[in-house]
Specification:
heterodimer, A: about 250 residues, alpha+beta, Arc Repressor Mutant, subunit A, 2 domains, four-stranded antiparallel sheet, two-stranded antiparallel sheet, 6 strands, elongated, B: about 170 residues, three-stranded antiparallel sheet
Chain lengths: ~250, ~170
């Protein structure tokens, strides 16, 4: 899917420029083009060509990602290490080829690149093969006809306000002897969600009406949403907010 | 068994998502799971031999009727909205997540040599990747994994159905 562009240089020759996925992609391309053994890369040659490419990208004012420069620096660093005299010390034999780390990275990248092509060559749903109905999006329970839309914190705050409006307004000030921690409430909610798969926001709050408890419940929900441990969905405007585990 | 096979065929047809053997066993109480699997495989073979437009695929831990891949170009005309495909960058990122999950973003970046933020976001939106938790290291970075939808979209029975990286390498050589 690479788009090739024909570029003309001042020097009068033409180069087919591929748009590369990244610096490793470019390096692999150069290795393939020069028919080089990946385990024995002539660093000077490859660095030269690599820098030429970067220079060319720059000439055309292409937005050059910093990662390309990082790899250029790595190549030059490797070359400089290769230039250092090899010590005759027998223990020096243990020393790794300066190119080894780069080769490892290249081989890994090559493997994933191949894996990506392999994935793409499969019979992809809605591209090559089609099912009778497309799989429902989201954590939609097939047995639950409600359609959910994702909600943000503000929707949750609004629901909380509606909830507190219903609370007993004549509640007297009391010194609460009960020790409650946010962590406890978080754990309780997670336990209940694990048990029930999903719960209505109102059910969770309706259990008790004392302000402190409701507040802790709400704080726990906000914290869980922030940590992306749970997700909140709503079927329609002003509908019931349902909470799902984000992590199975 | 012939009648049961017909029931199973009807169930798979009527189900909205790939139907698991376990689910069929719940409905057909008293039928061995092995017998159900056998019937499903027999059905798959029958559809295969028929060489019609439909095949029975084992996908995402269940069975689903799907159109024959060679007919994709025709069926596509039926769809009004063309689903946006994945870019090479997104595919690479997805491959890394699939093979290295659970994996943190820093590792994805390292494997690809570029920042994966954009493609990662796209994969999360398409629900092909998901957050599976947080790594217990300083900073508690988010761990990513693939979803059930990933298996459905890429026609995979489960993650073990992916060729190993070693196999891919041999394939290449």
């Amino acid at each position: 899917m690479k788009s090739g562009t024909l570029l003309e240089f001042d020097m009068g020759y033409e180069i087919k420029l591929d748009i590369f996925e990244g610096p490793l992609d470019l390096l692999l391309y150069l290795i393939k083009k020069n028919e080089i053994d990946i385990y024995d890369i002539p660093i000077a040659l490859i660095t030269r060509q690599y820098l030429d490419y970067i220079e060319m990208l720059r000439t055309f004012n292409l937005d050059l990602a910093g990662e390309f420069l990082v790899l250029a620096a790595t190549l030059i660093h490797i070359k400089s290490r290769l230039l250092l005299p090899v010590e005759e010390d027998p223990s020096a034999q243990e020393e790794e080829d300066p190119r080894a780390e780069l080769v490892r990275q290249l081989l890994e990248y090559q493997a994933f690149k191949e894996a990506a092509l392999q994935l793409d060559s499969r019979s992809v749903l809605e591209r090559d093969v089609f099912a009778r109905s497309c799989p429902a999006a989201g954590p939609n329970d097939p047995e639950d006809p409600e359609v959910f839309t994702e909600m943000d914190v503000f929707d949750l705050v609004k629901a909380f306000q509606q909830m507190t409006g219903r609370l007993d307004k004549t509640e007297r000030m009391e010194i609460d002897a009960e020790e409650m921690s946010l962590a406890d409430r978080i754990n309780e909610i997670m336990d209940r969600l694990r048990e029930h798969k999903h719960m209505a926001f109102t059910d969770l709050l309706a259990e008790r009406t004392d302000r402190r408890w409701v507040l802790y419940t709400f704080l726990a929900l906000l914290e869980l949403m922030k940590l992306r441990m749970i997700k909140a969905y709503q079927g329609e405007s002003y509908g019931v907010i349902r909470l799902f585990l984000a992590v199975e | 068994m012939e009648e049961k096979k017909a029931i199973i065929e009807a169930l798979v047809f009527a189900a909205e998502t790939p139907l698991a053997v376990e689910r069929i066993a719940e409905i057909l109480a008293g039928t061995e799971k092995a017998a159900i699997s056998g019937a499903l495989q027999e059905l798959a073979r029958e559809y295969e031999e028929r060489k019609g437009g439909i095949q029975l695929h084992a996908v995402a831990g269940g069975y689903q009727f799907r159109t024959r891949a060679e007919l994709g170009a025709w069926v596509k005309k039926l769809r009004t909205a063309r689903p946006p495909g994945l870019t090479p960058a997104a595919l690479e990122t997805l491959a890394i997540i699939a093979y290295r999950q659970p994996v943190v973003k820093a590792d994805i970046d390292r494997f690809r040599g570029v920042d994966a933020a954009g493609s990662l976001k796209g994969l999360l939106e398409k629900k092909l990747a998901r957050i599976v938790g947080r790594k217990d290291v300083p900073g508690r970075p988010i761990l990513y994994g693939t979803t059930r939808k990933f298996l459905e979209v890429f026609n995979l029975q489960d993650l073990s159905a992916l060729p190993t990286l070693r196999e891919l390498k041999e394939l290449q050589e």
